[in-house]
Amino acid sequence: MKKIFISSLLEDTIILPTETTHHVLHVLRHPFQKPIIVADKNGNHGLYQFLEEVDGRAVMQIIEYQKVESSQHQIVLVQSFLKGDKFDWVLQKATELNVGTIYATSTANCVAQYDRKKLHTKKQRWEKIIQEASQQCGRYEMPNLVVDMSVDTILAGETHSICFVAYEDEKGTTLKEALSEKLYKQEDNQRILIFIGPEGGFTRNEIEHMVEYGVQPVSLGHNILRAETAAIAAMAMIAYEVNL
């Protein structure tokens, strides 16, 4: 069954924005008489029936609220900014791979640089990509996108997470090996965080700084992967390991 996401909270009666109404009813051609699942920004879900379309906005009535079981683990991606449409692609695939939080951050070798105004505009576009990908793949809630934090700030807020950094010069420990060891020692639900660098990778100083915070460097395999490939590979490895 199709699902849509709205920015407001669910109520017994809701009115969809014009853009969402047009997309669902006139682009996807979802039958007016067929119920659809609606999710809000807090992860609440409900099965709704279309009642009418007024001035291009759909009025919907609740059929039943739905309970959603949360996963035992949550993947957190910290992705350095990438140039062109590579970052868009990573966001789309991260959403499909059920990542819970995506931090977009600037690191030393980033080619793409954004001032505060441009970053705000970019975030609006990126959130739309995430929403569309979430609806397409049918996931229960959209990833949380954070674009205004430095690596230090992210690490300070993720002190209880299991943290890895993909590093091409790491030869001793693979992500699979490190993850198996960490999960074996943990009994509670965990946030599993993976740092992925930009096109030029992380500098040695950045890696050493992360290690000071307890981040473990890991290998993703024998080949040196492009930044966008590394992100998808790492998330898929983690998702497989924790049965997401």
From TrEMBL:
Keywords: Cytoplasm, Methyltransferase, rRNA processing, S-adenosyl-L-methionine, Transferase
GO MF annotation list: rRNA (uridine-N3-)-methyltransferase activity
Superkingdom as given in the UniProt entry: Bacteria
Protein name as it appears in the record: Ribosomal RNA small subunit methyltransferase E
An example Gene Ontology biological process: rRNA base methylation
Chief place of localization: cytoplasm
Protein role: Specifically methylates the N3 position of the uracil ring of uridine 1498 (m3U1498) in 16S rRNA. Acts on the fully assembled 30S ribosomal subunit.
Intracellular or extracellular location(s): Cytoplasm
Catalyzed reaction equations: uridine(1498) in 16S rRNA + S-adenosyl-L-methionine = N(3)-methyluridine(1498) in 16S rRNA + S-adenosyl-L-homocysteine + H(+)
One Gene Ontology term, aspect cellular component: cytoplasm
Homology family: Belongs to the RNA methyltransferase RsmE family.
